[in-house]
Design brief:
11 strands; alpha/beta; 4-stranded antiparallel β-sheet; binds zinc ion; globular; 7-stranded mixed β-sheet
Length: 325
Amino acid sequence: MSCQLCNSDVLELISSKDAKSSEPLNISICNTCGLIQQTSIPDEEELNRYYHHEYRQDYKGVYTPKAKHVYRAGKTALQRLNFLKSAGVKSGRMLDVGAGGGEFTYLADRTGFAARGVEPNKGYSEYARNEYQCNISTGNLDRITGQYDVITLFHVLEHLPSPQSAFQQLYQLLSEEGYLLIEVPWIEARDASPHNIYFKAHLYYFSIDTLTAAASQYFDAIMIDTASNLKILFRAKQAPSRLRLPETTSVVNIRQRLSQKGWLEYLFQGRGLVKPFRKLAERMKERKARNFRPKEILDQFLPAQMGSTTLPRLNELKVPLTQNG
Ligand SMILES: [Zn+2]
């Protein structure tokens, strides 16, 4: 196989095992552009079979997330909205691709955007429609038409067989100089457990440089955040241009980052040692969410909290309802 970004044939194997299943999974780095990718990218049909089996994407059952998951998703959605807000992106027609249970779409729609979402999983999208009355359709990016001022993809791009054709599609859906927010796991992160990196579902493992390069025909990166995952806010170019590959020094740097990944770095620089304590404090907050309905949990993240880093206090809600999850 050749590199999916630059077509070079110089791929070097860096891992051969799936972190979840321990089954064989070949991951390579391109020595020309630095993109880390599955050595053999499955085709559309193969991917559909995989998702059908692993993710039960088209199952008709009822999806009911636990309150703590709604709380976590709401908190993450707020951080993402604040990131957009800090770049001056506060309103407009918005499309969230891979909307999941609809938490982000709902909160975006309540805080200034005219938001809709698209989600391939029937259970999730039905849940979002019923629980939050948000505009989420069941399906993939291919089905989407219309024009948007802002498009968001949270943990979606790394699952798509061709990032470049995705960028082309997204460019066509965006209004002139529209915004595109992409969030993916960050291959350069110090706080990821070293034995938890490569999965069959993730076809690509981006660095700042390779993600910027993959988007470069259609988008310019305008804001980058690596607080947990890699978030890049892009702006659509006035006209498509040539692909700009990362510099050679960038490839050297990525290789160096990979060689530093290990338990020592994770525990000391990645703050792996304090993780259990930080988690405990969060668990306490999540527990309080149990007595509220999903929409009430999300509503606690609304206006007064926008722009502040203070998290809402669920125990201050006036009318506790019956247990839900
Ligand atoms: Zn390459």
